Amino acid sequence: MAWVFIQKETGNGIGRELLTHLSQTSNRYHLFKYPALHAVARIESSLLAGARRYFYQKGFTEITIPHITRATGACENISTMFEVDFFGKRRYLAQTGQLYLEVLTQYLEKVFAIGPSFRAEPSADSRHLVEFTLIEIEFRGGFEELLNHIEGTIASMVDEVLMRNRADLEYLAINSSRLKLSHPFKRITYSEAVEILADKGVRWGDDLKSDHERYLVKHFGDQPLFVTHYPKKIKFFNMRENAFDQTVVNSADLLLPYSGEAVGAAEREFDHAKLTKRLLESTMFNLLREKGGSLEDFDWYLNFYKEYQGTLHSGCGIGLNRVTQFVLGLDDIRQCTVWPMNIESDS
Amino acid sequence: MAWVFIQKETGNGIGRELLTHLSQTSNRYHLFKYPALHAVARIESSLLAGARRYFYQKGFTEITIPHITRATGACENISTMFEVDFFGKRRYLAQTGQLYLEVLTQYLEKVFAIGPSFRAEPSADSRHLVEFTLIEIEFRGGFEELLNHIEGTIASMVDEVLMRNRADLEYLAINSSRLKLSHPFKRITYSEAVEILADKGVRWGDDLKSDHERYLVKHFGDQPLFVTHYPKKIKFFNMRENAFDQTVVNSADLLLPYSGEAVGAAEREFDHAKLTKRLLESTMFNLLREKGGSLEDFDWYLNFYKEYQGTLHSGCGIGLNRVTQFVLGLDDIRQCTVWPMNIESDS
Fold first, then answer.
1. What is the C-alpha to C-alpha distance for residues B73 and B102, in angstroms, rounded to an integer?
2. Phi/psi at B330 (nearest 5 deg)?
3. Between A and B, how many CB-CB pairs are < 8 A?
4. Which end of chain A is more exposed for a tag (fewer CB within 10 A), N or C?
């Protein structure tokens, strides 16, 4: 075995330097020989195991969700959906299983799904993949429980790595003390975030860019940071309005060091009339209409809330690779998985 | 709660009768109210948990594999691949991650992936889905170890259900004694199977049809049955030739009661020249060529075995829903998952 871990004075081992090779997405098979990639693979595997361990402990049921969907598989951005010819009908590769999980909370209470999420991102960079693993949960319950579940899941993921991957962490020169998370995670509202970012030109109603997210995380001591209650206008149509301020929704983004937004979460609206109204007003729906879509694309979902009773439920999507970025301390998401997929991928 | 389990004299409870509703794939959301579907969901979840429990125990690493692939994501049948326009290039929705996992066994020894497999099956029936969950493992090692891993995985899946889903099994009137598997699983060779099926018109070299598989399983006492050493000509190009009889490969299909073929498995060829030759001669490759494909589609995979050393490795794909069929005792695969996907699916 030619690869031996040597702790350098800087605290960076051989493995860490090898990670820089892993930005390459074409001819990926050339990189499989690097032990740094093997360590990344084992860490990614543990992160998934840690998430599931939490879900099983809490009584979540794993659901097999569809990945060829109508527009109900879209997140916010219809324009980055891959299209599939489904026996003569237009379908999309799912970006999220959220709506498919949501309707089941009514009966199964707590559900989760882990699988690929597809985004037709036309440029290769260090932040975006065209296919990545999304960890999604939905459950009957509200905002506080939601934030607890997210915190519990992230903690369980990181703990699994600390338990199982000591050698890999050392080989990659990762300071484990950085992974000791302080609980509960710090929370600020979107409005508070905007105040902090005011001298960076951020105004209320703007979406936060990744360097804003990074600034906020640094500002609060390089620990996981919840930013809650975003403006309704810039968020997904079914995020539930706040009862006291209807310009914001009961949402939470979890920002992590290195990756920024790693989790998007919210209480979900379940009133049929409100859902229909919010959908029709949404930017997403206008984009869908421009592409020839209509309200019919959301038929099954809207009909469910018309025909069956809805109850308060909440959920989130956790971008696995964003958590891996945090654990590995890497700015480049392509270094955080075995087969990172972007426009340059040729396998 | 209106649904109460009533054990009838026939051994069939209310839940079992409700299962018949679950063949419906259009307007699927109408079925979510049925407690029989909730029981199926929980059982499916346990089967997945059981498979992973086995993989973790045996030291397998979970790999995130790509689902938008070149022809290297094809199983035997190129003609049932969904095409995706990948930024102007032709790509497919993966039917298998096998080749993507195989190359990693060289370094990570034992790997697995669980995710969607896509087949553009143009007709709706009780045996085929256009999207289903495939459980795949690849590891360094040979035939005996392969059969042991399959047996261990299936046993762990079923055990998890027996452990966690007693109430669901009772509600669905499933006789648990049927799920007590006798170990080791019975094995016959393909040639022995053909002898047994001779008076059904089966000749050596024919593929076995689902009613043949069902007959064999019945013949051997309605227990899991391995059929090994299929003719090379009708199997995937990289299945490894048998050293003593080069007309057959070191393959194994696991047949289960109710579902028939639930697992396809084999030792894998790793010699570059042989792989290239076998690929060029394969039916799959001829179909690919007719569709405008070429050897270039297999570039990364073939180059890997040209440029890096290969070693003996083996693996299998387990169709989750086929195992669910066995557990539930159902002939119809559409009744065995929450969101069965076929040409009629409209969500």
1. 12
2. -125, 140
3. 167
4. N
